[in-house]
Amino acid sequence: MTEGCSFSDFITSVYVGKWPLLALSLTALLFLSADMLRRVVRQSKFRHVFGQAVRNDQCYDDIRVSRVTWDSSFCAVNPKFVAIIIEASGGGAFFVLPLQKTGRIDKAYPTVCGHTAPVLDIDWCPHNDLIIASGSEDCTVMVWQIPENGLETSLSEPVVVLEGHSKRVGIVSWHPTARNVLLSAGCDNQIIIWNVGTGEAMINLEDMHPDVIFSVSWSRNGSLLCTACKDKKVRVIDPRKKKIVAEKDKAHEGARPMRAIFLADGNIFTTGFSRMSERQLALWKSDNMDEPICVQEMDSSNGVLLPFYDPDTNIVYLCGKGDSSIRYFEITDEAPFVHYLNTFSTKEPQRGMGYMPKRGLDVNKCEIARFYKLHERKCEPIIMTVPRKSDLFQDDLYPDTAGPDPALEADEWFNGKNGGPILISLKDGYVSTKNRDLKVVKTNVLETKPATKAENISTVQKHVSPQPSVKMEDKLEEVLREFKSLRDRVILQDRRIARLEEQVAKVAM
Ligand SMILES: *[C@@H]1O[C@H](CO)[C@@H](O)[C@H](O)[C@H]1NC(C)=O
Ligand SMILES: *[C@@H]1O[C@H](CO)[C@@H](O)[C@H](O)[C@H]1NC(C)=O
After folding, report:
1. Is 9 helix (H, G, I), strand (E, B) or coil?
2. Residue in 446, 452, 456 to alter for ligand 2 test, most ligand atoms within 8 A of Cβ
């Protein structure tokens, strides 16, 4: 402050003195430094966020993390479990570990192992902490129900198998607000949106991407998608109208993979490579992508930058595959829009990364993000906190966040309805409630029968067992199949009788 005073005294003396040219240039300098100063001291409560890896005994150890060449995160986390794609001989498998199951993981620990080729991507259902989806090189998507307390034996029977892709399935992603709506993207360059409750492929986006789809992201209320494709285009898609509503060619000019995610305000954040192979980030308006809102160059490493986003604080965390750091940025509507906050660095490179939803964080420790970093043979939680002295709930750090309840049912969404996430307060910490079991009722099997009968059958099913097991489901399916074949026979006989009656009538005439 005193420095500033003496400096302005000096300025005054210059102005009243006889050096007008010097005065002019000093004025310019002053304006410049005021602007710089404002930028440097930009107020942010996240300026001092710091990351810390947990102690060694809090890690998950002796895990053979997958080596498959595909740039997904290999790890998915929710408030109950951490799931990790692992090396498995002759098939595809992943671990589902209760969060508290830290330490050495025994070789015989049960896995989820129904795929016949490596698993490429996994995603926890945001509306049920016991349901996880997986996409695999075997061209299928599977949806699994994990027992409340974790697996005691290996799980090879999914609740449902979703078949429709003709090549490996590299991306699975649940709809953020509609129950039982799941998206998958395959190396057949198709996106399929499934109603998991009926096992049906409802929407097939097949002619939009001429090459491999690197990433797909739902908008905040799930009305739109944005994709990054190997053809260097970023597309904004209305999936229910099967229409591309905006696109940008060469969003990043380099040939290496891009990523694109929707932000809460509808803007799109991308990462990619420049023509000179420098890593870049950029921000775009989703309705007009002609020019970026901003582009920033980062460095010249070559790992794909996986973005993880917190819509409540508008912070983006960038984890480069193969990097040993997490860089984070706050996004605001003030230039330069994407503000670098800090870097968390370690020595070991990351093979993959899991990202805990907000409701899984410890608000009493001012934890604002938690990562699950995959090393070659272990998974190490990294905790990001805002340093605060108070023990009180910091409501400015924790605006209400997306809770586990869906805003819509699958049918409503497929019929055109939208809904934003149902928010909850984290004030008293998040307490998980009992999850209901996922029921798959194959309506496509019932299609040919009157709806009322179908209703009655499902009532019977409910009476027999409130939580139908996979076996029950199978039995039901078998009965239905038999029913259908009997019905078809009756129809055929009907037609035959009608034909015979006609002939008899003709003969009688
Ligand atoms: C959903 O989001 C879109 C834009 O992303 C917006 O136009 C629409 O109003 C939203 N609808 C609801 C119900 O939130
Ligand atoms: C359902 O079954 C009950 C008897 O179990 C019958 O009375 C009723 O009419 C059936 N409902 C429909 C809609 O078929």
Report:
1. helix
2. 456
Q: Is residue 459 part of a domain?
A: no
Asked whether 456 lines ligand 2 (CB < 6 A), one says yes
Q: List beta partners, residue 60.
A: 103, 379
**pLDDT of the chain, 509 residues: tens digit per residue:** 333 344 444 444 444 444 555 555 555 555 555 555 555 557 788 988 999 999 999 999 999 999 998 999 999 999 999 999 999 887 899 999 999 999 999 999 999 999 999 999 999 999 999 999 999 999 999 999 999 999 999 999 999 999 999 999 999 999 999 999 999 999 999 999 999 999 999 999 999 999 999 999 999 999 999 999 999 999 999 999 999 999 999 999 999 999 999 999 999 999 999 999 999 999 999 999 999 999 999 999 989 999 999 999 999 999 999 999 999 999 999 989 999 999 999 999 999 999 999 999 999 899 999 999 999 999 999 999 999 887 788 989 999 999 999 999 999 999 999 999 999 999 877 777 666 777 777 764 444 444 444 444 444 444 444 444 556 777 777 788 877 788 888 888 888 888 888 888 887 76
Residue 120 is part of which domain span? Answer: 50-410
Ligand 2 atom closest to the Cα of residue 459 is: 1
- Please name the residues in contact with 501: beta carbons below 8 A apart, sequence gap of 6 or more: none
**CB-ligand 1 contact for 267 (6 Å cutoff):** no
Predicted structure pTM score: 0.78
CB within 8 Å of 258: residues ≥ 6 apart? 214, 215, 228, 232, 234, 251, 252, 270, 271, 272, 273
221 alpha carbon – ligand 1 mean position (Å) = 6
Closest residue CA from atom 2 of ligand 2: 456
Tell me, in angstroms, the distance from the centre of ligand 1 to residue 219's CA: 9
Q: What does the angle CA 83 – CA 77 – CA 194 come to, to the nearest 5 degrees? A: 80
**Ligand number with the minimum distance to the CA of 459:** 2
Opening angle at CA 459, ends 457 and 463, nearest 5: 115
Ligand 1 centre to CA of 223 (Å) is: 7
Looking at the CA of 452, which ligand is closest? 2
Tell me the angle at which helices 20-40 and 2-16 cross, rounded to the nearest 10 degrees.
150
418 lines ligand 1 (CB under 6 A): yes
Number of independent structural domains in the chain: 1
Question: Which alpha helices (DSSP H) does 17-117 contain, by range?
Answer: 20-40
Q: Is 39 inside any structural domain? A: no
- Amino acid identity, residue 337? F
For residue 417, being part of any structural domain is answered with no
Q: Which ligand is nearest to the CA of 421?
A: 1
Domain with residue 315: its CATH number is 2.130.10.10
CB 245 near ligand 1, within 6 Å: no
